[in-house]
Amino acid sequence: MAWGEVAVERPNVPRVSNPRDNEAALNWQLERLGSAAWKDWPLKFQRMAFGYAHDSGWHDAADAVGWLNHHDLLREGAAPRGALVWYQAADRIRVACSLGSGQVVGPLLNGPVEIADLSLLSTDFVWSDPHFPFGH
């Protein structure tokens, strides 16, 4: 993805613990496999998985990627287990959670919560730690 080449000063972003740790968040997601209730809500699904009941403060995944990029929190390469994977698919940015070994879980392109190989969803992706700076 072309995340932009503008050089800006990166403010420090305090690290906080999520209400649910990575494994608990992954278990929450795996318990919802097959559910179509999260169709078109991948960011909300990830926020809820990590234990945040209220809005993330981001309008959508593209807004989140812009904020994460501005704060130098996006990474390239293989996403570790529990990382948020931001990928380009169907003309928009979407988010899923890494299971490791190139697999992700979340409400994917067809709607229901599924496990998929990231390489089948997109070759254009970055990842970040599960960071919801505006969640509560």
Overview of the structural elements:
The chain has a five-stranded antiparallel β-sheet with strand order 4-3-2-1-5. Helix 1 (22-30) crosses helix 2 (42-49). Strand 1 and strand 2 form a beta hairpin. It has a domain at 36-52 and 59-128. The longest helix is centred in the middle third of the chain and has 10 residues, at 61-70. The chain has 136 residues and is an alpha+beta fold. Mean pLDDT is 88; it is low at 1-10. It is built from four helices and five strands, in the order H-H-H-E-E-E-E-H-E.
Short synopsis of the structure:
The protein is α+β, with helices and mostly antiparallel strands and 136 residues long. 23% of the residues lie in helices and 21% in strands.
* Average residue pLDDT: 88
> Helix and strand succession?
HHHEEEEHE
Radius of gyration: 14 Å
Helix content: 10-25%
Count the DSSP helices. Answer: 4
Strand order of the largest sheet: 4-3-2-1-5
Tell me the overall shape.
Answer: globular
Strand content: 15-25%
Backbone structural class: alpha+beta
The description of the largest β-sheet is: 5 strands, antiparallel
Low-confidence stretches: 1-10
- How many individual β-strands? 5
Report the end-to-end length measured between terminal Cα atoms.
Answer: 29 Å
